[in-house]
Design brief:
single chain, Arc Repressor Mutant, subunit A, 2 domains, 6 strands, elongated, Sig_transdc_resp-reg_C-effctor, DNA-binding, Response regulator transcription factor
């Protein structure tokens, strides 16, 4: 027997393609819509048996808010999440919001259909390999990469951080000295110390390294508004 469905996805073309494939397999697809177009309201109004909710970012905060609303106002609607290979947080967030299952976007239509039937019958619809991968990651978490930007920032004094910011903004020695109220020779010394600490040979390399590691984004708390240096001693 066919299932009364709604397909919701961030990408309307994907939603429509999946809806067409399910129609050909005998299911009644009430609508295909995108979340930004008020999908939760549409699901609540049409009250399908199963809603296929697609997302490209299952771990993004608030992504499953529409699912929470659907389950609050239409608890009889089974929501099946369609997404990329998730991390444990993605799966946990989907189920915490009230979803009945999680299916990968690249799953064959037969697999999607099996998950739909399970969700409609009240069963949890999650492929064993997804659960296995999630548990494996939880039990053996990958080592987090070092925060190189923060590490480099800690090597510099507040005044050197200001010098680096000015270097990244393209200021020459004269402008650095004028802006900081110091002698050009002192400014030149600060620049050389920054290059040495960062392990680079030129101002251009220093600016590129600071941008690549996010060091400049972290420099704000070290400087007061207006570019003044914090009173922390050098």
């Amino acid at each position: 027997m066919g299932v009364r469905l709604m397909v919701v996805d961030d990408h309307r073309l994907l939603a429509e393609a999946l809806a067409s494939a399910l129609k050909l397999r005998g299911h009644r697809v009430l609508a295909a819509a995108a979340p930004a177009a008020g999908a939760a309201e549409l699901v609540i109004t049409r009250a399908p048996e199963v809603c296929l909710f697609g997302t490209a970012a299952p771990a993004e905060p608030g992504i499953f808010d529409p699912v929470v609303r659907i389950k609050r106002e239409r608890p009889q609607v089974a929501v099946l999440v369609l997404g990329p290979v998730p991390n444990p947080r993605g799966i946990a967030a989907a189920f915490a919001a009230g979803a009945s299952g999680y299916v990968r976007h690249d799953e064959r239509i037969e697999g999607v259909e099996r998950a739909i039937m399970k969700a409609r019958s009240g069963e949890a619809a999650v492929a064993p390999q997804l659960l296995q991968g999630a548990f494996s990651e939880l039990l053996n978490p990958a080592a987090q990469p070092d925060d190189e930007g923060q590490r480099l920032l800690q090597m510099l004094t507040p005044r050197e951080v200001e010098v680096l910011v000015r270097v990244a903004e393209g200021e020459d020695t004269r402008l650095i000295a004028s802006g900081m109220g110091i002698a050009p020779s002192t400014a030149r010394t600060h620049v050389q110390r920054v290059l040495m600490k960062l392990g680079v040979g030129s101002r251009l390399e220093a600016a590129a390294l600071a941008a690549r590691t996010g060091l400049l984004d972290r420099a704000g708390p070290v400087l007061r508004p207006g570019g003044a240096v914090d009173a922390t001693p050098e």
